[in-house]
Amino acid sequence: MDIKKQDCTYTSCYCEENVWFLCNTVQNKHPDDIHGCFCIFISNERRAIPLWRQRASKREDGQVVWDYHVIFLHQSSNFGTVVYDLDTTLPFPCDFNKYYEESIKDEKCLRKEYHRKFRVIPGAEFLKTFASDRSHMLTQDGRWMSPPPVYPPIKTEENSNNIQEFISMEKNNHGVVLSLEEFLEKFTNSDRT
To answer: Which domain, by its residues, includes 156?
Structure first.
């Protein structure tokens, strides 16, 4: 699957929409690969999750504490699992093991309230069910926290805004919520040491 970073739709601070478009590109241009694609919402009950090697960081190690972040994974028998993260300083795509070691990292050094959970949604399901009117990006006085994309909001026939259901790490109908250990078990490439 050959997708170049410069060909992707990207708006800073709208990672869920960036991933939706990436997933849509796969479905349209590489339909045989869609079954191996997953959209991953990373968050927790506190909505404070540290990730490293993020472009938005001003720190040398690239650490940022997001309320949530969304990445795209492609799993294949030929290449194992690779991560597509349009907000990282790591390669695009990046080998899953490298992404884990440099961006997600182990939780042993983190306080419990910063432990991450991972909502794993198959790509085709994400395209059919995700909707956002972008209201979560408005301040109380109606200003944008970050300028919105120029294209119209993503919606489905049934819904115009269900993003909070995806960000939430409570169990619901959108994919499955995994701990870090379960996430690694599902996606780690076998040569990880």
So the answer is: 8-187
Q: Is the pTM of this model over 0.90?
A: yes
The answer to whether 100 and 71 are in contact (CB under 8 A) is no
Of 23, 69, 87, 94, which residue is the catalytic one?
A: 69
Do 81 and 47 form a contact (C-beta atoms < 8 A)? no
For 148-160, the DSSP string reads PPSSPPP--SS-S
Which CATH number belongs to the domain containing residue 152 in this structure?
A: 3.10.620.10
Catalytic entry in 15, 23, 37, 39? 15
| Model pLDDT for residues 87-141, shown as the tens digit of each residue | 999 999 999 999 999 999 999 989 999 999 999 999 999 999 999 999 999 999 9
Check if 174 is active-site.
no
